[in-house]
Design goal:
Distance between the termini: 31 Å
Shape: globular
Largest sheet: 7 strands, antiparallel
Number of strands: 14
Length: about 325
């Protein structure tokens, strides 16, 4: 899983990090131009052509130039019909050659002006959970004046426990965000009202176009995402608490690819495409760190199904939230 750590660089260190991010993203844009012109996503081919030029033109170290080329090739590989472009302060990948840890509360990063040691003010589970190890590279991000480091961590698996006797089925939807097999409905009316009010406010501010309107838009960005994340977390916490009290597993509806499978009217597009369905299943897994041992991932109509009447994807949720699954699902009815 990915842990986002908050960094606290000094003013001078912050300037060095910003200069490094601008140089790396400019180099990635240059590499993307070459990859697009040659119609190749092969990192070694692009590297042979522009590695030296990137180092001299942008003043990058050897590994930073290689990471910039890799970033461009990976982005071009996703869609070869367009040329990738990167923001000036887009995320920059750091691997073990240009990043090292000084304990668990400080980190050493390579910048354009040399190595800097930066304190980590929000270490998360990386520093407080026993047995957690770091894996692979990390991404340096800059968001609203704050630096973050996205680190991939590996959490140890707990001992496997017995299969639960009962399952709590959960259907996910837009009109009703979640409906469990015991009849509890989590209505989405309030969420839709908030989203529509925010959409009207954004439209008025964008039409206004003044400096104060733009300032308010900037202040409000990501506010709706935080609201949706909070609602999803509270629903997940309630469902996990109910399953723990009855020593049951959770059967979640699998909604992967639902936007490609359904067609809606123009008036309903905003509701469909702003629906953060991917957060709810994961939210039900995260509270499992306090005792829920297993869940299963059903295809559709999980709340209306029983272990005797249908099969499901068996998904093991460990006490640390990791997932194991095996697909055995059959068709069932879907709900709104």
């Amino acid at each position: 899983m990915t842990e986002v750590l908050k960094l606290a660089p000094s003013a001078e260190q912050a300037r060095s990090l910003l200069a490094t991010m601008r140089a790396c993203n400019a180099a990635a844009n240059r590499a993307a131009e070459v990859a697009f012109a040659l119609h190749t996503a092969n990192k070694m081919t692009v590297q042979k052509l522009i590695y030296t030029d990137l180092r001299h033109e942008f003043g990058l170290s050897a590994q930073m130039a290689i990471r910039a080329i890799a970033k461009a090739c990976e982005a071009y590989k996703r869609d070869k019909t367009i040329k990738p472009t990167f923001r000036d302060l887009g995320a920059v990948a750091y691997d073990q050659r240009i990043l090292s840890w000084k304990g668990r509360d400080q980190i050493s990063l390579l910048t354009m002006s040399g190595r800097v040691i930066i304190p980590v003010v929000y270490p998360g589970r990386w520093s407080v959970t026993a047995g957690v190890t770091r894996r692979g590279q990390a991404d340096l991000m800059y968001r609203e004046g704050v630096f973050y480091l996205a680190v991939v961590i590996q959490v140890p698996e707990p001992p496997r426990e017995d299969e639960p006797d009962e399952w709590l089925g959960v259907d996910l939807g837009i009109v009703n965000l979640a409906t469990d097999s015991e009849g509890k409905v989590h209505c989405g009316k309030g969420v839709r009202a908030v989203r529509r009010r925010n959409a009207r406010l954004r439209a008025r501010l964008q039409a206004k176009g003044t400096k104060s309107a733009k300032r308010l838009l900037k202040k409000r960005r990501r506010k709706e995402a935080r609201f949706a994340r909070d609602v999803n977390h509270r629903i997940s916490k309630h469902l996990v608490g109910k399953a723990k009290d009855t020593r049951s597993g959770i059967a979640l509806e699998d909604l992967e690819g639902i936007r490609d499978r359904v067609t809606v009217t123009k008036a309903q597009r905003a509701d469909l495409h702003s629906w953060s369905d991917q957060h709810r299943p994961q939210g039900c897994r995260r509270p499992a760190v306090r005792g829920l041992t297993r869940a299963r991932h059903a295809r559709r109509g999980a709340a209306s199904s029983t272990p005797q009447g249908r099969e499901a994807d068996s998904v093991e949720v460990s006490s640390r939230g990791s997932i194991r699954s095996s697909l055995t699902a059959g068709p069932s009815r879907s709900i709104r």
